[in-house]
From TrEMBL:
The chain crosses the membrane at residues 25-47, 59-79, 109-129, 141-159, 171-193, 200-219, 239-257, 323-345, 351-372, 384-402, 414-432. Residues 438-457 are annotated as: Disordered. Keywords: Cell membrane, Membrane, Transmembrane, Transmembrane helix, Transport. Belongs to the nucleobase:cation symporter-2 (NCS2) (TC 2.A.40) family. It is a multi-pass membrane protein. InterPro entries: NCS2, UacT-like, Xan_ur_permease. NCBIfam families: ncs2, NCS2_1, pbuX. It is found in: Cell membrane. It comes from Natronomonas salsuginis. Signal peptide: none annotated. One of its GO terms (molecular function) is xanthine transmembrane transporter activity. One of its GO terms (cellular component) is plasma membrane. The lineage of its organism: Archaea, Methanobacteriati, Methanobacteriota, Stenosarchaea group, Halobacteria. This is Purine permease.
């Protein structure tokens, strides 16, 4: 495993390094393997809630893959001001599943894609455009806590996959737990006890081992592969567009969550270099989120945002090369143009995927904790902020029914663990005097460069 050196991870490949092409392809494929199941699961879940047929469902999956790939390429290489030039893998986020399912079932997918089209770039584009002004409100204490909560609330999702998937008839079966344990064990063993390409590809190798084991157990279903076409071209406006005010307000709130997740993910990636992202990186990353989501909505893709699991891969493998992630984006886009190839990849059993994501989620949380510890004095003020933010975030994540008495819009907004953690940390850090507060950091006793002692009350 990569080790800390003066706040940095010991990187095998840095941001601008270019591994050999064959190795880069395998490393890019590893990123794809970790994110493809949860990204496409968004399309499957929403399609099932709305009651779509097999053809429309396959099309939604195809668009998720295609625009995830295109956004990943832009994030890695940039087009003008759009893109961060960071190894950020993009995909369709579970943040939007509940709203897309409920609004799609009641008002139709036209209302869903109309709302995404309007709010994607308006919300995240505005935040990205003005991020230089708002950046003081997002110091490492706030962004680090966002990274931590992203990792922590992904752990129950990973456990559900490891058990076979929510709603599966064999949920919790011993063979599912066994497959997940096999993948987790192989990944950890290869990363800790081997060197070279074997360590770098530890997650991918573990997934392959788990997949082969699942094949031997007869747990892989290839029926979807036989039914899928070899090539399919995107068609804009397939489900139409409607601009429902409730849907627009709801997705505007959720894109605020997405922006916070992306800020946290970018901070988690650059933490490998012992730093926070620059103004330009933040702005370009948020532009990619917003523009990619709005353009994708034209073709019926669900919102595209940064994928936290892949932030964990950077820390776990020590490979930060943006060129590797760019190749992963090319692979995703190619899968999006060929439904048959994508169908082969999505035959990976949930338990196999769960073993890998469980590890990645933990690495994301650890990356956030390192970001906080490297750049924040753990005095009384900051410890209280951490306690409140994480307590509220995990509280709404583990007991969402506690908010059932709120109006629907408020329940949707405050039921998001990322936004509750981020907002509580943001408000407390802003209005409580301390070095990282944008309002009070110029006080003599709290000026930049002054020391905060652990006993400061």
């Amino acid at each position: 495993m990569s080790t800390d050196t003066d706040g940095r991870i010991q990187l095998e490949y840095g941001l601008e390094d270019k591994p050999p092409l064959s190795k880069s392809i395998l490393l890019g494929l590893q990123h794809v393997a970790v994110m493809i199941v949860p990204a496409t699961a968004v399309a499957f879940i929403v399609a099932g809630s709305v009651g779509l047929g097999a053809g429309d469902t396959a099309y939604l999956v195809q668009m998720v893959l295609l625009f995830s790939g295109l956004a990943t390429i832009v994030q890695s290489y940039t087009i003008g001001p759009v893109g961060a030039k960071l190894p950020i893998v993009m995909g369709s986020s579970f943040t939007f599943v509940g709203a897309a399912s409920s609004i799609g079932a009641s008002a139709g997918l036209a209302a869903v894609f109309g709302a995404i089209l309007v709010t994607g770039f308006v919300v995240e584009g505005l935040i990205g455009w003005q991020f230089k002004r708002v950046k003081p409100f997002f110091p490492p204490l706030v962004t680090g806590l966002v990274v931590v909560i992203i990792g922590l609330y992904l752990i129950p999702v990973a456990m559900d996959y490891a058990a076979g998937g929510v709603g599966a008839a064999d949920y919790g079966a011993m063979y599912n737990i066994g497959l997940a344990s096999l993948v987790l064990g192989v990944a950890v063993a290869l990363n800790l006890f081997t060197r070279g390409v074997t360590r770098l590809l530890s997650v991918l190798v573990a997934i392959v081992v788990g997949y082969v084991a699942a094949l031997g157990m007869g747990l892989v279903d290839f029926s979807s592969v036989a039914e899928a076409a070899w090539l399919s071209v995107p068609a804009p406006g397939r489900f139409g567009f409607e601009f429902d005010p409730v849907a627009i307000v709801t997705f505007a709130f959720l894109f605020l969550v997405s922006a916070m997740e992306t800020v946290g993910d970018m901070s988690g990636v650059t933490a490998a270099e012992g730093r926070n992202p620059t103004h330009e990186e933040f702005r370009g990353g948020l532009f990619t989120d917003g523009l990619g989501s709005s353009v994708g909505a034209l073709f019926a893709a669900f919102p595209i945002t940064s994928f936290s699991q892949n932030v964990g891969i950077v820390s776990f493998t020590g490979v930060m090369s943006r060129y590797v992630v760019g190749i992963g984006g090319v692979i995703l886009a190619a899968l999006g143009l060929s439904p048959k190839i994508g169908a082969v990849v999505t035959t990976i059993p949930s338990a196999v995927f769960g073993g890998a994501v469980l590890l990645m989620a933990g690495m994301v949380a650890a990356s956030g904790a390192r970001l906080v510890m490297l750049h924040t004095d753990l005095n009384r003020r900051n410890m209280v902020i951490m306690a409140v933010a994480l307590g509220l975030g995990l509280g709404v994540s583990t007991r969402p029914d506690a908010l059932s008495g709120l109006p629907q819009a408020a329940e949707t907004f405050f039921g998001q663990p990322v936004i509750v953690t981020a907002l509580s940390a943001l408000l407390l850090n802003t209005f409580v005097p301390g070095r990282q507060s944008p309002l009070f950091d110029r006080h003599p006793e709290d000026a930049p460069g002054a020391l905060e002692t652990p006993t400061d009350d």
